[in-house]
Amino acid sequence: MSSVTIQGRKASPDQEGIEAVGIGNVPSPSTDWVRFKCVRASESVSGMGLLFARAFAQQALLDAWREVRDRALADGRPDGEVTEFERDAVGRLGELAARLAAGEWEPEPARRIEVPKASGGVRRLAVPTVADRVVERALLEVLDAVIDPTLLPWSFAYRRGLGVKDAIAALTEARDAGATWVARADIEDCFDRIPQWEVMRRLRGVVDDERVVHLVGAILDRQVRGERVTDRGRGLHQGGVLSPLLSNLYLDTFDRRMLAAGFRVIRYGDDFAVPVDSRLGGERALRSASTELSDLRLELNAGKCHVTSFDEGVRFLGETLTASTLAAAEALSHPTETSVYVDRQGSMVRVRGDRLIVTDGDESLLRLNLRRVRQVVCYGRVNLTTAFLHRAAERGIEVVLLSEHGTLGGRLTSPVSSDPSARRAQFRVADDADRSRELATAFVLGKVNNMRVTLLRVASRADDLDAAIAAEQLEQAGDQAETATDLNQLLGVEGAASRAYIQGLRRLVDEEWGFAGRQRRPPPDPVNAMLSYGYTILCHETMPGRRGGRAGSDDRFPASTPLGTTGLGVGPHGGVPAAHRRRGRLALPAN
Questions:
Q1: How far apart are CA 405 and CA 320, in angstroms?
Q2: Of residues 482 and 13, more confidently modeled
Q3: Smallest Cα–Cα separation from 126: which of 220, 248, 197, 233?
């Protein structure tokens, strides 16, 4: 499960100035630009395709520029080009949008820089101009949502929410499932050798907006200042933000062909591992990889191909996995502070010295240093000693009391000083119907999109037509959510989307689990029980955020306060129609 946090933000001076300047054919901030973004797939906006309109809408360009600027400032040494662009950001963005809308924009030559590699040698980057970076960033936002769900789940590089630790965890799971050997390899000069025409062919297979495809083609064909083209039509420029996504799209063909041959590739960019059950199986995997890459006009790096057993130790992405050791990435993924959930009826929570102790009669259930505890959640008949309650209050440990079925009974927290400016900002948003609807829409869209991505990934792995149909229904629900005019309509859309998702999920769960649909009280099967338990944990994990934080520089929207928590269903009832106050559907923005 995942969640979406929306933090309010006051319009910056450059955003307000755009209303006067005007950016192409998109509406000014005074209009409902959220509605502007939502058009049916069969419609167009000022002659634009759906993705094109979304990518280069007013807010999308502003967000892309801010992302480019923030990344340039990340190391504290912004280049002069970024500083120059920022002096007249409003005017430059307006000109850029007008050229894009008129079909007159073309990428400028990139600048070559060389970055030393830790392993020796240099990485040659082709850095686009600032305006081109803004265009690429805006395209990435819409293309990632289309392409990422089509990728196999064992590709871990350049994907939101995935990273090295997830790749290590996947290899660890394969080891624990019985794999004893691993074929290790990487792809020789991957980015420089990928054929652009094949990338474009695959892009057209997943993107039906020809204007977007044309822009991507122009970006791929961009030249580098002062360099002669020696192999036109081949290579993805390292330095552009679209190149990693496009490389994943291209290499997904390799992943699928290997899977069809019986080998699951755990890939991080051009570096991959194939878990197998024997040395001979590893050698076959490398031969198959060489054949498939050759068909894709790529080849293995011969100096880095080998087959290793877990007994010897498998080196992958900076870690060494053996037959018995836990991956360091997994060990580090556990938080320093944690929540303790106690559901053993009749058990006792006490303290001894600096340790939290949970016992049931003479049986010791848990011993944990109090410094690692931030919350204790008790289900049903759990006993708490007075000494523990005093120590919890001293250390700021929250105690949550629930019924056996997860209904909230009460919360014991240390006295805290509430931030009145945060509360005022929350209640102002709750009283603003348009702003409440806008934030609630963002929550629902986050949930719907996550459900859709889950079903699409299942459909791509299992070739499941029912899952694909359900995913299409969820995409339509997202369009309906963006055009909802009030919270009642939004709740209806969210409910319909959840039903479509549950029906899709029901068909994917084995019959032995007895899952026929969502039923909460009481849950009749293990799937419903796990869902209810997960929802309860997520709900109580997010509740502390309701109390607000320190006010930010913007009085209307404090920087550290998740504004969706009050008035949109996550916190107190403000802003939610009375008929829906007990439904709690908006309290869980994503599954």
A1: 43
A2: 482
A3: 220
196 membership: H or E segment, kind and range:
helix 196-206
Indicate if the pLDDT at residue 37 is higher than 60.
Answer: no
Closest CA to 39 of 496, 492, 480: 480
Mean pLDDT of the chain: 76
Pick the range with the lowest mean pLDDT from 284-288, 408-412, 458-462.
458-462
- Tokens standing for 552? 């930010």
Distance (Å, rounded) from C-alpha 454 to C-alpha 452? 5
Please give the full DSSP string across 304-364, using - where no structure is assigned: G-EEEETTT-EEETTEEE-SSPPPHHHHHTS-SSEEEEE--TT-EEEEETTEEEEEETTEE
CA distance 532 to 460: 28
Q: What token pair was written down for 110?
A: 């990139």
pLDDT one-digit tens code per residue, 102-121? 888 888 888 887 777 766 67
Which residues, listed in sequence order, are joined to residue 369 by a DSSP beta bridge? 355
Spell out where 513-582 has E strands. Answer: none
Residue 84 carries which side chain, given as an amino acid letter?
E
Dist CA 42 CA 160 (whole Å): 29
pTM score above 0.85: no
> Which two structure tokens, joined as six digits, stand for 339?
């929540």
CB 96 within 8 A of CB 61: yes
CA angle 309, 312, 318 (to 5 degrees): 90
Cα dist. 278→41, 260, 282, 321, 504 in Å?
50, 19, 6, 17, 38
Residue 377 CA to residue 385 CA, distance in Å, equals 14
What is each CA distance from 571 to 87, 102, 576, in whole angstroms?
41, 46, 10
Number of residues written out for the chain: 591
Burial class (CB in 10 A: 0-12, 13-18, 19+), 247: buried
Task: Note whether 462 and 496 are within 8 A (CB).
Answer: no
Q: Which of 262-276, 537-551, 576-590 has the lowest average pLDDT?
A: 576-590
Look up residue 167 and give its two tokens.
């790749």
* Token duo for residue 74: 């990340």
Sheet of 266-268, strand order: 266-268, 271-276, 181-186, 306-309
Residue type, 389: L
How much is the average pLDDT of 181-185?
94
CA distance 454 to 474: 11
**At 273, is the pLDDT very low, low, confident or very high (cuts 50, 70, 90)?**
very high
Report the alpha-carbon distance of residue 524 to residue 486 in Å, rounded.
34
- Three-state DSSP string of 49-96: CHHHHHHCCHHHHHHHHHHHHHHHHCCCCCCHHHHHHHHCHHHHHHHH
CB 430 within 8 A of CB 567: yes
What is the spatial distance between Cα 355 and Cα 341, in angstroms, rounded to a whole number? 16
Give the three-class secondary structure for 536.
helix
Give the number of other CB atoms < 10 A from CB of residue 262: 11
- Here the tokens at position 550 are 């320190």
Reported in sequence order, the residue ranges of 11-51 that DSSP labels E, i.e. its strands, are none
Would you say 191 and 341 are in contact if contact means Cβ atoms under 8 Å apart?
no
Question: What is the token pair recorded at 385?
Answer: 């000693």
- Which helix or strand (DSSP H or E) is residue 384 part of? strand 383-384
Q: H helices within 410-486, ranges in order?
A: 420-431, 433-462, 465-483
23 token code pair? 């950016």
- Locus of tokens 């829906």: 580
Return phi, psi of residue 117, to 5°: -95, 145
